[in-house]
Design a protein that fits this description.
alpha/beta; Rossmann fold; Arc Repressor Mutant, subunit A; 2 domains; 4-stranded antiparallel sheet; 8 helices; globular
Length: 228
């Protein structure tokens, strides 16, 4: 079935370029130009993915993302002209799955979009991964601590599952980008750090002294050994 993508972008030139590129790749695409229209189109069309500009008239893109995440886990890729870490972190905190900084190449954007679709569902593996208080139910895509379900984004779940399924294995940021995001563009390693920071806040008793996801300085991260 053809994937439906909602483009939320007030720059007509960019919106049309993205729409045309998506159509060439076999997707269907709808364009809206402000945040309020985006929420209406999202509820009516039920898209498979949203490409969301950060700066919009009517309602800011981050407020649109916040509203979407109140009730839905549709993948959201944020477009931003602000190449600043705080903006990126804020988008991830609200539940964005990925981001692209303007100006961007269509080739990179298409790689990101196809990667998001490939990441669902997660590959077949052990139905449940469990370490002490932490339980990951793979088929249901659920994370529980002491039996209590935690809210995680698609990206957070995939990062956690990959690390927890390979205890003791050190993953560089570049490898995590490749394994989870499906690409390894230079300069996006901070996306990994942001996701790990968010995960620690959710699963660790003390995020500053993590017991599950350990930092390997100068390299990346690993999940502690089962006996650790």
């Amino acid at each position: 079935m053809t994937k439906k993508i909602l483009i939320v972008e007030d720059d007509r030139r960019i919106a049309e370029l993205v729409r045309a590129a998506l159509v060439r790749e076999g997707f269907t695409a709808e364009v809206v130009a402000d945040g309020n229209e985006a929420l209406v189109a999202f509820r009516v069309a039920s898209p498979d993915l949203i490409i969301l500009d950060r700066g919009l008239p009517g309602m800011d893109g981050m407020n649109v993302l916040r509203e979407v995440r109140q009730s839905d886990h549709t993948p959201v890729l944020v477009l931003t002209a602000r190449d600043q870490e705080d903006d990126t972190v804020h988008a991830f905190e609200l539940g964005a799955d990925d981001y692209v900084t303007k100006p961007f190449s269509m080739r990179e954007l298409m790689v990101r979009i196809k990667s998001l679709f490939r990441r669902s569902p997660v590959q077949q593996m052990t139905p449940t991964v469990q370490f002490d208080r932490l339980e990951i139910r793979v088929a249901e895509r659920l994370v529980l601590i002491d039996g209590k379900q935690l809210e995680t984004t698609r990206t957070e779940f995939d990062v956690l599952l990959l690390l927890a399924s390979n205890p003791g294995v050190v993953f560089s940021r570049e490898r995590l980008l490749h394994e989870v995001w499906g690409y390894s563009f230079e300069g996006y390693e901070r996306s990994v750090d942001t996701q790990v920071t968010r995960l620690r806040k959710k699963i660790e008793e003390d995020p500053k002294d993590p017991k599950f996801i350990e930092t390997v300085w100068g390299v990346g991260y690993k999940f502690r050994n089962a006996q650790g």
